[in-house]
Amino acid sequence: TFSALAQTPLVAPLKQQPHTMPSAECDALRALYQRAGGEKWRRSTNWMTHEPCCSWFGVECLAADCIPGFCAGHVREVRLAGNSLVGTLPMELTQLSMIEELDLGNSDGLSGTLPLHLVHLTRLRVLSLGHSALSGTVPPAMSGLEVLNELRLEEASISGTIPPEICADRRDAMHVLGLDRLPISGTMPTNCYFSTLHELGISHTDISGSLPPQIGELVTLEQFRAEGTHFSGTLPDQIGKLTRLDLLQVDGNRFTGSIPAAIENLNSLTRCVLTSTLGENQFSCPITARLPPACSRTADCAGFPPPSPPLPL
Length: 313
Known about the structure:
Shape: elongated
Structural class: mainly beta
Radius of gyration: 23 Å
Strand content: 15-25%
Order of helices and strands: HEHEEEEEEEEEEEEEEEEEE
Distance between the termini: 48 Å
Helix content: under 10%
Largest sheet: 11 strands, mixed
C-alpha cells in the first residue's frame, strides 16, 4: 500500500515511559472486540487484559501531550486486517479522536452498513474496510475526512454511486482509491481524478460513461484498474501522460475508435491489458499506434481476432 508514503505522523510514537490513556479510547477498543467477535480472532494478544491498550495486538499509539517523564497517549492506528472479524462496527469507534489509520479489511464476517459515524474520525488518513460483507452506500458526509489519502472498500457489498462530495477539496490528499468489485454504478465524478493518485481501482463495477480527458491529470498514477466496467467511447489521447503507469487494465469495456498514438509514451508499463477474453472493446483496425511491449499481446481490433494457435504436428 501507499500508507507509509502518504502518512506523516502528527507526533512521535508513544515511548516506553509512564503514560495514561483516555478511558473512552480503551472503551472503544473493548466495544470493537465485543461487537466484532474478538474471542474468535486469529490474534488477540493482550486484548481485554489489564495490559495497557497500546500493547494490544494491532494497536499503535502516539504521545500527544508530554511533559518530562510522562505522556498522555492516544490510539493512532488499529490494524486488524485478515484477523477474522465477525460482526459489526460499534458506534464507540468515534471515541478514537486521534486515530489516523483504521484497517479492518479482509474479514468476510464483518457486516452491517458502512458506518456513517466514521466521518467523525477527522484525522483518518487510511480507511481500509475492503474484502468484507459491509453494505450500504458511500455517504457524501465522508467529505469531512479532509486528510484521508487512502480509501479501500474493494470487494465489499457497498452499492449506489460515487458521491462527488467525497472527492471535493482532496487534490493534495488522496493517493489510493480502491473500489474494485463493488456493485456501484453511475459515472465516475470528474473531480475524483486526483492529480496525486498513485492507485485507482474501479474494475468489475457498473461504472459507465466515457473516460474523460481529466485522466491525463493523474501524472503520479502507477496502477489503473478499470477492466470489466462499462466505459464507452474512445480512449482519450491524454492517457499518454500517465508515464509512471506500471499497470493498465481497461479490457472488458465498450471502447471503440483508434488506440491513441500517445500510448507509446507509457514506457513504465509491466502489465497492460487492452483486450481479453472479456470481449467488448472494439478498437479500430489497423492498430497504428506504436504499442509498449507490455501491451502488444493484448491489443486486438474489430474484425481482426487474435490468430489461432498453430495446429499440432
